[in-house]
Known about the structure:
This protein has 413 residues and is an alpha+beta fold. It contains 9 helices and 5 strands; from the N terminus they run αααααααβαββαββ. The chain has a 5-stranded mixed sheet, covered by helices on one side. It is elongated and about 140 Å long. The two termini are 47 Å apart.
Amino acid sequence: MIRHPPPSATRALNLGLDVLLGTLAVVAVVQAPPGRTWAAAAVAAVLVAVHVAGRRAVRVHDRSVDTPRGAWWPDTAWVVALVVPWVVLLWLSPAALWLAFPLMLLQMHVLGPHRGVVAVAVTTALAVAEGLLVQVDADDPWTGFVLGPVLGAAVAVGVVLGIEAFVRESQTRQRTVDELTQVRQHLAQAERERAVTDERARLARDIHDTLAQSLSAIELLLRAADDAVGTDDERARALVGQARGAARDGLAEARRVVQDLTPPDLDRTTLVAALRRVAGRQPLDVSVHTAGDVRPLPVPVETALLRIAQSALANVVQHADARRARLTVTYEQDTVTLDVVDDGRGFDPAAASGGASGRPDGRGFGLPAVRSRAQELGGTVALETSPGGGTALAVTLPVGAPDPTAPTTEDAP
């Protein structure tokens, strides 16, 4: 299952709760009766310190709302450690009663909907008892000291339960989106495999119906010519001529099959010129450079490099927010390397799940397809990126014997 960070709204509410607790602690110190200010300040400092330490240790905001909560350590221990200094501060400063509300919210969030309600009830009872036994005078109405904490507890319980219900619904929707994304990726992979199978079947039919038949005819003609040598030289020469014609036809068919497999951008041109033509079609500044001795490459190698460059540039345009990109083809003795570098926003490679430059958009075949193309030819893929630092993709392929049929001159950019 794909893990997602907590919603930004939840993090904002946690931050707001921390600020509220710290602010009310200061208010309790400021409004402490004369002679108790320093003692109240010390207890309030202990309360804030325990809160900060608990935030770092418990980190309940990183947990899923469906995760069991309320364990004795560290969840319940943190809540108890907060209630104790609060009770002392409440005895020193009546204004500490206001701290009951953020404490109730925290108890519900940390202990969950079951044990949290129990903790809120205990906190409410302590607040009511302090108000009735310490703060209320004989002539004061007691209803405010009861209704205030009770209504605050009801609001705290309702707010936390409502937020968690919202988060639960959001997580359910996200799981549905993740499942649909995975299904789409599986369907895309299945479609790709089906297309590969269909193409292989088409090639098999073409080879069987053309090249195989031509080779079979040549073999039969040469066998007949061999039998006629010495007995009927005229017929032997005629049969050899027919065999040569069949060989020419087979060569033409072979070229036609190769032509069908060659991308249009590579038709009658070089790899570098094809890359420049692709770069010119992009809505951003794309430059093409070479290093080493530029030379013709085998058709499968040039085709793979061109397809990888097209896919990488498409993802730069769609997802990188880049202004410039650079394509570099480095020719070495036994290998050729294509580097695609952009000045876009980059990404976290550990979270990548798609995109030809590794963008985690979930669309297309992405980096796995690039690696698959490279692996089919015995090559390697290297990726360097970081959020805000752009992306560099390097694909290195081994190069066999040069293709004598490839053009040796470079078209104008």
